[in-house]
Design brief:
Layout (H helix, E strand, L loop, with lengths): L57 E12 L2 H8 L8 H14 L1 H4 L8 E11 L4 E12 L4 H19 L7 E11 L6 E2 L2
Length: 192
């Protein structure tokens, strides 16, 4: 015979203690109306593009810059246009223009924009030997062009690196930043 375990008398049930680890389905939203919703996150937490359909198109402008430092010999070869791959500054400028126009294909949550103005300048700075890139982008749209300006600068700098790497593999890309933007709800911004 097997002994059956005796059941102890049922205790009066006490209220369940709250678990210190809540499951996603048991979590309650604690956001107050004053808390702003994340603009690029949907109701289920997935990344999404912002709906700008209700916003009026306004003139938007942005300026960005960056630089690439290199050896004096590489810098002189760029200045003298003796780099084996050809016209470094001309090709980098075109690459930046192309990149700005394709920003929405590269940055997942950017809206495709028709650009009304796009200018990229590459400047040789002697000390330290540097090439400085600046991009100015404009559009009339319901959203801004900061990402287009930054993408133009970044790709122009990468193109310089690609074309000059046979002369200097230690080049350093840096200081990529937004210098100025205007238009839209946030108004005018200028980096200090």
């Amino acid at each position: 015979m097997t002994a059956k375990a005796r059941k102890s008398p049922a205790k009066p049930s006490s209220p369940a203690k709250p678990s210190s680890r809540a499951t996603p389905s048991s979590r309650k939203k604690s956001s107050s109306p004053a808390k702003a919703r994340l603009s690029h996150v949907g109701a289920r937490g997935a990344a999404q593009m912002v709906d700008v359909g209700a916003k009026l198109p306004t003139e938007r402008r942005a300026r960005a810059a960056g630089e690439i430092r290199m050896t004096r010999a590489a810098w002189l070869a760029v200045r003298r246009n003796t780099i084996k791959k050809g016209d470094v500054l001309g090709v980098a400028r075109l690459a930046g223009i192309q990149a700005a126009k394709r920003t929405a294909e590269l940055i997942p949550l950017c809206h495709p924009l028709a650009l009304s103005h796009l200018n990229i300048t590459l400047t040789l700075v002697a000390t330290p030997p540097t090439i400085r890139v600046e991009a100015t982008v404009a559009t009339v749209a319901p959203t801004g062009v900061e990402m287009e300006a930054l993408t133009a600068v970044s790709v122009a700098l990468l193109t310089v690196y690609d074309m000059v790497k046979s002369a200097d593999k230690r080049m350093r890309i840096g200081a990529v930043r937004l210098l100025e933007k205007s238009g839209g709800r946030s108004g005018h911004f200028r980096a200090s």
